Amino acid sequence: MSQPITSADPLIIAGVAYHSRLLVGTGKYRDLDETRRATEASGAQIVTVAVRRTNIGQTPGEPNLLDVLPLDKYTLLPNTAGCYTADDAIRTCRLARELLDGHDLVKLEVLGDQKTLFPDIAETFKAADVLIKDGFKVMVYTNDDPIAAKRFEEMGCVAVMPLAAPIGSGLGIRNPYNIRIIIENAKVPILVDAGVGTASDAAIAMELGCDGVLMNTAIACAKDPVLMASAMKKAIEAGREAYRAGRMPRKLYASASSPLDGTFF
Hints:
By secondary structure, the chain is α/β, with parallel strands linked by helices.
């Protein structure tokens, strides 16, 4: 029996291979049990956590995310959500490394506006430069600017994560053309981060050629987060397979599925 494409098509980030191309966040759920159940249903191996908002050991005696998402099962991706300056982001990453015994894979985001949560690219460049020199493996959240994306790659970021639409908006892929350009020019993984609202959005991102998708709100704020997590898992797998298979050319006019050439009358 042939194996699914995804089993022989790993996502490789910072030299580590993952069979899932879906990365999920851990915020906005009703409780830690729902976080656990949705994460399990998603099939994700990398889970991102906002260090400034979630207890991963810095607050003894309070519920700890690591109790339901253990490090022997998941790769934790500390992020700098809520940081508006490079200095804040750098401090947050260093705190995460201390709490997680030297863990060096981080998601960097430096926000520039509280209403849209668009990234402050100048501050993000500053933070990325310091963190990379400090030994961190940086996955960076950025806008969908191909020039900025390429520069982050050249600086040494291990993955570049352009937004598809504003964080938490659920608007889907608003500018597929810029995403395609970023992908075509990249030599590191490109993962859509922010804007996905439902399974079809995730499939479109993968059909464009993205290496993966990171999402939180689309799952956590669904009416049934666990069921949506399962749907997103399937969408990511289907979109990746469709991308690798290569879609048929678009045509203006019809083309018969059963050609008349060679038929008997």
